[in-house]
Amino acid sequence: MSENKRASFGGKLSVILVAAGSAIGLGALWRFPYIAGKHGGAAFLLVFLLSVLVVGIPAMLAEFAIGRKTRKNAVGAYRSISKMWSWLGYGSVLSALFISGYYYLIAGWSLEYLVNSATTELYTSALPFTEQFKEFQASWRPLIYGVVFILLTHIIVSRGVEKGIEKASKIMMPLLFIILIVMAVRVAFMPGATDGYRFFLSCDFSEAFKPETIMMAIGQAFFSLSVGMGCMVTYSSYFKKNNNLVTTSLNVSLLTLLVSVLAGLVIFPAVFSAGIQPSEGPSLVFVTLPEIFNGMPFAPLWSTIFFVLVMLASLTSTISFHEVLTAYFAEEFKLSRQAAAITTTGISVLLSALTFSSLFGIDYLNIFDKLTANVMMPLGAMFTCVLVSWFLERNFMKEELTNNGTINKYVTPVIVFMLRYITPLLIFYIFIMNLL
Ligand code: PHE
């Protein structure tokens, strides 16, 4: 596609909804609650908030600047900024592949739970919920639902940037907020809910500043904001030149934080009300929540609504990393958008099958998750910050953030300073501390 014919998202709100759609997903609804549950509740929330501010937002802005300036896929974008740094683009594509290797499968769990809630089977089965989860994991259904999720993603992405991605995000994101708020209000009326609030909102500082907690929080910030793997580079390549990058990144981050906190406010009171350990792990959302819904009138209805929420949030995220790969194949290999989307879909199916099969007894889900969130995304973001602030012309970030001197005149120097001295060093420091 030639430069001037390249697709672009519509107005300000569309840009925010699309980017927030990528950001808000399993990271906020599934990963955040169980990691916060393991690392001290509010203590984790606090460190997470700081990570978003100090590392997440500056790194997102660096990606926005690169994407909008070059208007290319992740590999093309890094390459045209600097040939020497094109490996960062390939790193992004690799991260997108690893995420594809497990994210669709978990998103698929939400489809199974959605279907079983809607048919009421989840609540009428004689098996306890933990057994139902085990039985589900031991069957072929996770792979089948994972593939269904890939196909849903494929349909949206292959309809294109404007008619597919933008339109879907504009419908799904507002729906997601409404459902989440309804759930938070409903949960507040459950017996024992206050214990959950107390756990989630009380701070254990001894937990908060351990290197491991900080690393998990930084990893969560990158994962949740979709930063450090070319996603925001690809999406911002469809931004318009007059878009305000700073306010866009602030809005996206605020919405992500808001949804993470709301997810905590739904899940912890519910967990405590059912007397379950908040550090349950990845199955937290899938095993414990049905337990809780079970005690409510109209259990299948609430449960269906909840899993629709998880599904919608996941779908606006899967389309974003599918797009990283689709744009890469289309532009780098000169494929049509359809052919590129089919290639991405095919690879995603293969990777999901690999993870599902645990070939050679390897826990790919855990490896892909930790490797991307705690290693590849922080390193990708760190090198991107180093690239924009130490290797490009001094004015590169300034021009992009101020739209050539017209806006954000006062915050830009602060962001440029952070990108140069604070964000990359902090990521590096925590990364090394964590290795020792
Ligand atoms: N941010 C998404 C979530 O929280 C996951 C994601 C990571 C999406 C990286 C795109 C790129 O679920």
* Helix-and-strand structural type: mainly alpha
Order of secondary-structure elements: HHHHHHHHHHHHHHHHHHHH
- What is the CATH top level name? Mainly Alpha
Distance between the termini: 47 Å
**Biggest β-sheet: count, sense, barrel?**
none
> How big is the Rg?
21 Å
Shape: globular
Number of domains: 1
Residue windows where pLDDT falls under 50 for at least 5 positions: none
Tally of separate helices:
20
Strand percent estimate: under 5%
Nearest-integer average pLDDT: 87
- The third-level CATH topology is Hydantoin permease
Plain-language structure description:
This protein has 436 residues and is mainly alpha-helical. The protein has a single domain (3-435), classed as Hydantoin permease (Orthogonal Bundle), CATH 1.10.4160. 79% of the residues lie in helices and 0% in strands. It has 20 helices and no strands. Helix 9 runs parallel beside helix 14, helix 14 packs across helix 15 (284-294) and helix 16 (299-332) packs across helix 17 (337-357). The radius of gyration is 21 Å and the shape is globular. The termini are far apart. The model has no long low-confidence stretch (mean pLDDT 87). The structure holds phenylalanine. Phenylalanine binds next to helix 1, helix 2, helix 12 and helix 16. Residues 22-23, 25-28, 99, 223-224, 226, 229, 231, 317, 320-321 line the site of phenylalanine.
Keywords:
Hydantoin permease; 20 helices; binds phenylalanine
